[in-house]
User: Fold these one by one.
Assistant:
Number 1:
Amino acid sequence: MTPPLYIALRFLMHRKRALLLSLSGVVCGVGFFICMQAQTQGFAKYFIDSTLGSNGALVVRSRFEPRQLDSIVPTKTSNTNVAHRQYFEGITNANEIMRVSRKFSNVVSCSPVLRGTLSARSGFENATVELYGIDPALHLQTTDLAHQIAGGSLYDFRNKPDSVIVGSRLAQTLNLEVGDTVQLLAPGGQYRRFTVAAMAKSGVGTIDSTRVYGHLRVAQTLLHKPYPASLIIYKLRDPDRAPALAQHFENLFQHDAASWQEREANTLHLFLTLRLSAAITVSLVILLAGFGIFNVLTMTVLSKMKEIAILRSMGYRRRDISAIFLWQGGMIAAVGSLIGCIAGALLSWGVSKIPIHLRGLLSTDYFVVAWDWRHYVWAILLAMISVFIASYVPARRAAQLPPVATLRGSSV
Amino acid sequence: MKLGAFLSCQDIERYLGEDESRVHALRGVSLEVEPGSVHAVVGPSGCGKSTLLYILGLLDHPDGGSVMLEAEAVSHLPDDELARRRNEFIGFIFQFHFLMEDFTAQENVMIPMRRLGRLPETAMRDRAAGLLEAVGLSDKLQRASRHLSGGEQQRVAIARALANDPRVVLADEPTGNLDTKNSHRAFELLKNIVQQNQMALLLVTHNPAIAEACDWIHEMMDGRIIASHARRSG
C-alpha cells in the first residue's frame, strides 16, 4: 500500500459521517442510473424482440422499376432526368427470391406472407383485421409465433386449413374463445367461416389487436390476390446488419426492402429519446453526488491544513498530498459504484416484479427490465468521471498549500 | 565554511509579504551546523528565527544566498528533490506538536518511514516502537495522538523527527508549549539522542535555560545573526 493510499484510508475512516454522505450520493446515483436504464431499455428491447418475433428483421415487399422522368423545367442545380420508382403491388416470384436470399449467411430463414385487410365478425361484434396468410412451417421457423401462442393449439391450426390464429386483444374485442367461429368478409362481399385454433400474444399492441393468421392458400382465395405473397419476412442471424442487407436486397431483387430499424424508426426514436432523457435526469444525481464529494473533500482539505503542512515537512511531495485526496475520491467512487451496482441490480429486479396492466403500444403485465452489463459500465464510468473532477480541485488545492504559511500561522 | 558541516547557509536573504507589508526578514544570514552539535537560535519575536529554520529545513526558498546540505547547494533543486532530502536527512519538531490526529503514536512515528520506503511494515513498527520506548512512551504505542498529554505529544513528535535517522533535527520552539518540567525533560531527551547518534540539532527557543544548555547560541535581531557564542565551559 502506498503511503498516500494508507493516509487517505485513515482520513476517510475518521470522517465516517462525511464518508457515508459521499458514499450514499454515489450509491444512489449509480443505482438509479442502472435501474432507469434497465427500465427504459427493457421496454425498448421488449418492443424490438416482439416486433422482430412477429414481423421479422427484414421485409421484402412490392416490386419496383426505375422510372426516368423528364423534368419540365430543367434547373441549374438538378439533372435534367430525375430517377423515380414505380411500384407494383405484391411479389410474383416469391419462391425464387427466397431461394436466392437463403444463400446469404445472415439469413436464417424466410417466410412468404399474403397480407390483406378484412372485416371480421363474431356474434354482434365487428372489427377490421389484418389477415396474414402464412405457410405455417416456414412462418414458425422465421418468427416467434410458436412462443406467442396464448391459448389453443398450433397443431390444430396446421392441420385445419379453415382455421385461424387470432391476436389476443382482437379475440377480446370479438369475444372469441378457442374453438369459436369467426367470419371474415371477403372483398367479394361474402362471409367465410373459420375456426379459432389458437390465440397469439406478441406483446405489441398494434399486432395483437388487428392480426389474424390464416393459411396462405386460403388467404389467396379469400383476398383474390393475383400474386402468391405481399411480403417476405426474414429472420436474421445479426438483426443489427439488417439495413445493409435490405439495401442489398433492393438492388438485387428490385423489390422494396425495409429493415426493422427503418420500419420501426418512429417508435425506436421515441424509446431512444426516453432513454436519453432518463439518462440525463439520473446523471444529474451522479453530478450532485460529485458536488457533495467536492464539498466533503474541500472541507477535509481545510480541516487538514496542519496535517498537510506536517506531511510536507516530513518529505511528502506535492503529488503525494494530491494523491491522498484523489485516493479518497477514488475509494468513495469505487465502493460507491460497487454498492450502487448491487443496489441498481436489486432495484431493477424489484421493479420487474411490480405488476402493471399495460395495453397500449406494448402489452405487458409487469415492468420490463433489460439486464445489460453496459448499463453498469456506463454508471461506473459516469461516477468515476464525476468523482475524479470533484476530487481533483480539492486535491490540487491541497498540493499547492504552502506549508510554511500554515506552520508560521500556527506558531503565532 | 568548515568541512564536515551537515547543514549550512550562506548570505541568506528573505523577504516576506508584498508591497507595503513587505518585510526584509533575513539579511545576509550565514550559519553552519556540524555533526553532534546542538545550536540554539534566540532573539525577540519577529526577528526571523522561524524563517531561518524553514529555509534551512528546505521548506522555504531564500530570495538570496544558498543552503548547503552535506556540502551540496540545494536551494535551487526542484520541489520533489527537496522533499526527498527533507524526508531522508532532516527531522522537524514544531511547537504545537503537529501530530496527525487520526493516527496512533506508533503510526505517527511510522509516517516518515512510509515515505522513505526502506523498511518493511514489521520493521517500521519495530523501529517506531523502539523510538517511542526511547522517549518513554512504550506503554502508549496504540494510544490515539489526540488522547496524549501535551508532553507526551511532544515526545511522540521527537520520536517521529528521528524516525528516518536524520542527519539534522530542526526544532521550532519545541518546548514552548510545555511546562518547565516537561520542557526540560523533552529538551534533555532530544539533546541526548542527537548527541549519541552524532546528529545535529538546531532549535529556535525563547527559553534562556534551554539556550544556555546548547553548544552554540546564535542571537538574532532584525533579520541578522548579531552574535554566535560557544557554550561557556563549566
Number 2:
Amino acid sequence: MIGISNIIFLIVAAIGIGLFVWQIRKIRKNIQLGRDLELEDNPPERINKTLLVAFGQQKMFKRMLPAILHLFVYVGFLVINIEVLEIMIDGIFGTHRVLGFMGPVYDALMAVNEILAALVIIACAMFLWRRNVTKVPRLATGVEMRAWPKMDANVILITEIVLMFALFAFNISDLKLAELKGHELAGAFPVSSMFINAFGSDAGTLATIANVGWWIHIIGILAFMNYLPSSKHFHIIMAFPNVYFSKLAPKGKFMTNPAITHEIKAMLDPSYQPPAPEVDAEGNPVMQRFGAKDVEDLSWKQLMDSYTCTECGRCTSVCPANITGKLLSPRKIIMDTRDRMEEKGEHPAIFNPNHYKEMGVERVETTDEKTLLRGYITPEELWACTTCNACVESCPVNIDQLSTIMDLRRYLVLEESAAPASLNAMFTNIENNGAPWAFPASDRFNWADELYLPSKN
Amino acid sequence: MEENKKLIKVPTMAEMAANGQEPEVLFWVGCAGSFDDRYKRVTRAFVQILEHVGVKYAVLGTEESCTGDPAKRAGNEFLFQMQALTNIEVLNGYNIKTIVTACPHCFNTIKNEYPDLGGNYEVIHHSTFLQQLINEGRVKIQGGGEFKGKRITYHDSCYLGRANDIYEAPRDVLAALDADLVEMKRSRANGLCCGAGGAQMFKEAEPGRKEINIERTEEALATLGTEGVIATACPFCMVMMNDGVKNKEQEQNVKVFDIAELIAQAEGLTK
C-alpha cells in the first residue's frame, strides 16, 4: 500500500540523489580543469591493479591493525548497500522487507549484515580512539591537519556509528513486533535477537522506534552521500577510478615533455621541422607552461588524486624529509591541490579550504598569490623532496604525490629560473663539463689509470 | 710483486669500433664512478670483476657525459633532454644494445626515460649483473671469502628499489659472501632514502631537525651492533652513509662498501 510516507520518502530520496548528482558534476568539472593525459593503455593490467589495490585493499595491509579495522568498515559498506537497496524499494512501494522472498539467502544476508554492522561500530569506535585519545601522530599532527580535516574524520566515524545503531533499532523493534504478533520475520538477526527486549514490548512504541530507526538510517545515508564530496570520505568512490588510472610505468620513470624535445631537436639540427603547435578555438597557438604553477597546469589525474586522498598521512609518515623535520608533507601537497582547485573552480556543498596563516605564526610562509604555487605550496617544501617515491609506494589508493611535486619544481626552474643557487651551479657544471661537479671532462677516464688484476698463475 | 699482477687496459668504444668490434656490454661508468674518489674504487672493482670473468666489455671513456638525471630531478627538463639526446646520439652511433652501470640513477634514467627520446637499450644494474655472474658460476667466492660470518646490512637505493622494484638482486649477491646478513627495520619497499636523491646531493638540505643520512645511519648502526659493513649499490647512498658513519665516529668499526667491492675483495681481485 502506498501512503503519504511513501510520497515523502520519494521526495526525500529524489532531493538527496539530485543534490548528489549536482555535486558530482561540479567535481567532474573541477577534475576537467586539468591538462589532457592519455591513460587508456593496457586495460587488463589496469583492471588487475584495481582488483588488487582498490577492491582487494592490498596496500592497506602494510599496517595490520588499521587494515583489519578498515576491512570491516569497507566490507560492511559494500554488503550493507544491498539492504539499502531493499530499504529504497520498501520506501517507494510501501512493501516490508521485499527481498524476504529469497528465503535462506535472505537469512544469510541479514545475518552477515548484522555481524558486519556490529564490527563497523567496533572499528569506528577504535578509529575514534586512535584519532582522539592515543592520537596516532600521522592522524593527529601536521600543518595541514587543521580544524576541518580533524572534524571531518570525527563526523564520518560518528555518522557511521549512528547509522549502524539506527539499523539495529529498526531490526530489534521489527523483530520484537513480529514476535508479539506471533509470526516469523523474514531474515536471521544474530545481533538484534540478543537485544530483542531492549525497547520493551509495547507495540506502539516499537512501531515508532522501528519507523524512526528506518527513517534515520535512510535519511542518514542520503545526507552522508551528500557530505561525501566535501569530505576525505569521498575516497569510497574515487579510490576505484584513481587506482584504475594510476601509473603503470616503473615509479622511477618521470614524465618527458615532448614540447621541449622539439625545441632541443630544432636547436641541434636546423633542418628539423617541429610539429605545428596546438591551436585553440580561435586558431591562436596554445602557450603551454612548462611545469605547474596552478591547478590547471596539472593533469586531470593529478587533480583526481586530490579528490581520492583520505588524509591518512601514510605518505607523510614515511617521507624522509618530513621524518627529519623538514616542512614538506606529501599529504599537504595533495590537500592543497584540492583546496586550490575548489577555490578556483567549483566547490561542493561544504567548502573549508586550508589557509596557512590563520592559526598565527607557523612555518608555512605562503603569499597572497592566488595560485597553487606560493599561495598554498612554498618552494621550501618542494626543494625538500628527495624523489624517493616512499609516499607513492605507501599510498593505499595509488596517489602520485611525487608527480605534482615535480611539476611544481619544473615551473620554478623552467619558467622562473628560481632554483637554489647550488643547483644552478650543478646545472652549469653539467652544461660545461658533462658532470654535476666541476671536473674537466678530459679527466673522466682517469679512473682507469694503473688498474691491475692479480695473475691467475 | 709486480710480476703477479697484470695491467688492465680498459677498452673504449672508439677503439672497438675502429677495430670493427662490438662489446657484449657497454659499461656506463657515470659521473660519480668517474670523478668521485671513493666511487672510482667501485668502478675499478667492477672492471676487475669484468676482466676476471672475461666479459667482453667497453666504456665510452671521455665520450661519456652526465645522463641528465640530477638536472631532471631538479626540475630542469631542458638540460636533461639536452644531455639525453646527446648521449643517445653517441650510444646509437656505436649501435649499443646492452648497458651495465653501477649507478641506479644512470640505470633508471637510461632504462626508463631514454626510450621516449629514441634511446632503446637493455639496461642492467650491476647488482643484477653480478647476480647473473654468480648464478652462472662465473664468480665463485670459494668458502665465502674474507666476509664470511661478518655482519652486513644492505641499504636499499630508492632508484633501484621503489623506482624499479629491484630488491633481491643485491641481496642475492651479498648472500654469496656467506656473511651474516641483517635487515634494517625499514628495508625493501619500505626502505628509507639516504637523503641524496632528487638532486639533494648537490644542495644543502632544507631547514629541519636532522639530516636524513644521520637518521638512516643511526638505523644501520643499531642494526649492525658494534661492528660490520653497510652495503650499498649506489654512489649517492655511499657518500651519504659514509658521511653518516663519520659523523657518528664509527668509521673504525663500520665500513661502507659497494656490493661490487665486496665481491671483488672476496674473490681476491683487489690485492
